[in-house]
Task: inverse folding
């Protein structure tokens, strides 16, 4: 059984699981402001768990393309009250942050089980801080920063370059004392990538995973690449495209799917799993 060691929990990744998104930001690209208040965030997290989320991801800074940075104090003010509530719901809690100061304050509560870092622990002190804890960490690839990353992203071979970066970050973590059983890698769909880059990564996800050598997390839900394919401008109306992308990511080896629409994704994965099991029985 493939298991992720994450803080208070051991998460079974023998088949893909769903991570439910709880944004506590006023400017998230899809649901900004809807769950900003702690009580709203708690109710949303409970609903996502009821729909099949195996873990909850809480974020207090929007990292959508063009998003302005927020202060450490503002990010902490957004996430800390929500952690206190959601941390008691009985599933692993992931904190989506790239700042060491935010990680330190959140880890001190004992209610965070996974650090989901779009900067792959590149912030000063982040690697050492996480290494000294027992939480899991997701290392994501991005080219540039949110305020400018979509201006002119360029690669030679995007699959090789993303896989190589993730492999190097994993090696640094292991050298720092973080067990591989605590590590995840994320190719960073939409983070400094064109539509062509994103599609190449999705097609080559198996190569990325093989290079990283740890389980993959994929976040494609409602993203602009899906709008570019379908012509759908409203992110919330990209359900069908999001589910299709999630299934393709799972087929390519992703073990955690970070999504807004938990119920639809969970149901699709259940059908995929049943078909795979039937194929195995027939063989």
Result:
């Amino acid at each position: 059984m493939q298991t992720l060691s994450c803080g208070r929990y051991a998460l079974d990744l023998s088949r893909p699981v769903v991570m439910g998104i709880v944004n506590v930001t006023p400017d998230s690209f899809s649901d900004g402001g809807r769950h900003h208040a702690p009580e709203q965030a708690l109710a949303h997290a409970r609903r996502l768990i009821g729909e099949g989320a195996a873990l909850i991801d809480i974020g207090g800074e929007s990292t959508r393309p063009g998003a302005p940075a927020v202060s450490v104090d503002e990010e902490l003010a957004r996430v800390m009250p929500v952690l206190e509530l959601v941390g008691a719901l009985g599933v692993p809690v992931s904190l989506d942050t790239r700042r060491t100061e935010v990680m330190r304050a959140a880890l001190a509560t004992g209610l965070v089980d996974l650090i989901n870092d779009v900067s792959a622990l590149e912030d000063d002190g982040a690697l050492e801080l996480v290494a000294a804890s027992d939480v899991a960490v997701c290392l994501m690839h991005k080219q540039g920063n949110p305020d400018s990353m979509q201006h002119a992203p360029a690669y030679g071979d995007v699959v090789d370059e993303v896989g190589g970066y993730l492999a190097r970050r994993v090696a640094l973590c292991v050298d720092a004392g973080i067990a591989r059983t605590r590590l995840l890698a994320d190719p960073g769909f939409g983070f400094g990538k064109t539509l062509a880059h994103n599609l190449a990564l999705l097609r080559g996800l198996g190569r990325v995973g093989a290079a990283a050598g740890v389980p993959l997390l994929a976040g494609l839900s409602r993203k602009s690449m899906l709008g570019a394919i379908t012509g759908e401008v409203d992110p919330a109306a990209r359900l069908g495209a999001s589910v299709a992308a999630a299934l393709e990511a799972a087929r390519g080896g992703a073990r955690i799917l970070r999504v807004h629409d938990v119920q639809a994704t969970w149901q699709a994965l259940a059908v995929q799993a049943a078909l795979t099991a039937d194929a195995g029985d027939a063989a």
